[in-house]
Amino acid sequence: MQRISSSHSYGVSGLHLQFTPKKRREVFRDPAVRKECRKCFLQTARELGVVLHAAEFGPDHVHIFFTNWRRYSVPQLAQRFKGASSRWLRQRMPDRIAKYINAKAFWTSGYFYETVGSVTARAREFYIKRCQHKHWEGIEYPEWNEKQTQLTSWFN
Length: 156
What we know:
- The chain is of the alpha+beta class.
- The chain has 2 domains: about 5-115, Transposase IS200-like (Alpha-Beta Plaits), CATH 3.30.70.1290; about 120-155, no CATH class.
- Helices cover about 40% and strands about 20% of the residues.
- The chain contains 5 helices and 6 strands; from the N terminus they run βββαββααβαα.
- Strands 4-5-3-6 form a 4-stranded antiparallel beta sheet, with helices on one face. The protein has a two-stranded antiparallel ribbon with strand order 1-2.
- The longest helix is centred in the middle third of the chain and has 19 residues, at about 75-90.
- The radius of gyration is 22 Å and the shape is elongated.
- The mean pLDDT is about 80.
């Protein structure tokens, strides 16, 4: 992931979203529906100025991962991607999706989200536990000496 620079900030903002069609209908078994939905996600990402890295489908759900979303909240992004894809599919392939949805909603009202940084949690844990010892070297600090012994045995 590439860090993004703006006038007052610099960093990475990655987001993983997962959506489920209403009543867990297996609408994505149809390759044409998957293809059209992926096109819509790409178009929506372009319009929002976010970078879509992945859009993968299960028979009854979709996962999307994108970066550079710092201008939006998670609920705003979920709403935009779900709303745009619902309209897109209804307009472009109403006959193909009619058997999977009712007139009111294509997606369930909920969604899963997870923010993702440029380093994994494990790497961050290693940095915090192992690499911060430089601040304590040469200082008589009983808890530090005990932790140093535990860390040495944990990493070896």
